[in-house]
Design goal:
Distance between the termini: 67 Å
Order of helices and strands: HHHHHHEEEEHEEHEEH
Helix content: 40-55%
Radius of gyration: 36 Å
Largest sheet: 6 strands, antiparallel
Structural class: alpha+beta
Number of strands: 8
Strand content: 5-15%
Length: 264
């Protein structure tokens, strides 16, 4: 199906180029003839190529021959498609084949003045390759700004599919004479390294090993230790709301289902 389809498309575009092409005063005829020679596997029957290029009617006749071959190959592609049970399930493929076939028929009707489809001359086959060598350029990715759509999820060392953690829980802490009652360490995200017994953090349900992910609704998953400490220092007398998550170890996961809740 693909072979018939692409052959049909190549004949269609060859016909469009021939029928719609107009040589300009600055166009070199030798280059135009060379391009037409490279297009066909064999030379077209009839007038010379330079005559075809100069004569609009001759271009129309050759273009018409290419359209005839395009229509025939489109119909052959649709016939092969209809014989395959697997391909028949691909609705989009059937729509594409029907659409390009209709496009070729429309173009043929625009240039057909004789109503002689079956008497139209045979067009030569199109070369399946080009004489032009592609110029491959490696893209410079340093000049392309790329946004990581997963960045907001946090560092992969913690927030990856191989780890399990509780939903983020927000707790409100008020600063006492002993501070917030916890110590922090690490970066991105900051880890609660210790909890002072009977302190504000302990009463709120925070535990050693919890990760701090937000301070007053400001995301801190990528924040450095010094940045988080500075945020906590700048809070008002009303206290601070912090969001934390707790990693679930494999031992805890294999146990009976538990409810991970913070103390009110």
């Amino acid at each position: 199906v693909k072979s018939k389809y692409f052959k049909a498309v190549s004949h269609y575009f060859a016909a469009v180029a021939l029928c719609d092409h107009i040589m300009g005063p600055d166009d070199e005829e030798s280059e135009q003839v060379k391009a037409l020679q490279q297009l066909h596997v064999t030379m077209p029957e009839g007038p010379s190529l330079i005559t075809v290029l100069r004569d609009k009617e001759e271009r129309r006749k050759l273009g018409k021959a290419h359209l005839k071959k395009a229509i025939i190959k489109h119909e052959e592609a649709m016939r092969i498609h209809s014989l395959c049970r697997i391909l028949r399930k691909m609705d989009i493929l059937q729509e594409v084949l029907a659409l390009v076939h209709k496009r070729s028929l429309k173009k043929y009707s625009e240039i057909d003045h004789e109503d002689d489809f079956f008497d139209t001359a045979e067009a030569p086959e199109i070369h399946p390759k080009t004489q032009q060598k592609p110029d491959i350029k490696t893209p410079n990715f340093s000049k392309v700004k790329v946004t990581d759509i997963f960045h907001r999820l946090g560092p992969l060392s913690v927030f990856s599919a191989k780890n399990r953690w509780t939903p983020a829980t927000e707790v409100h802490l008020k600063k006492s004479e002993k501070g917030f009652g916890f110590t922090l360490r690490g970066d991105s995200p900051v880890l609660i390294a210790g909890v002072v017994p009977d302190g504000s953090a302990d009463e709120a349900g925070l535990r050693e090993g919890d990760y701090l992910v937000s301070v007053n609704q400001q995301d801190c998953k990528w924040s450095k230790h010094t940045d988080v400490v500075q945020l906590l220092k700048n809070i008002s007398t009303e206290g601070v709301s912090i969001g934390v998550i707790t990693l679930i170890t494999s031992e805890q996961h294999n146990k009976e289902p538990q409810h991970w809740e913070m103390k009110p």
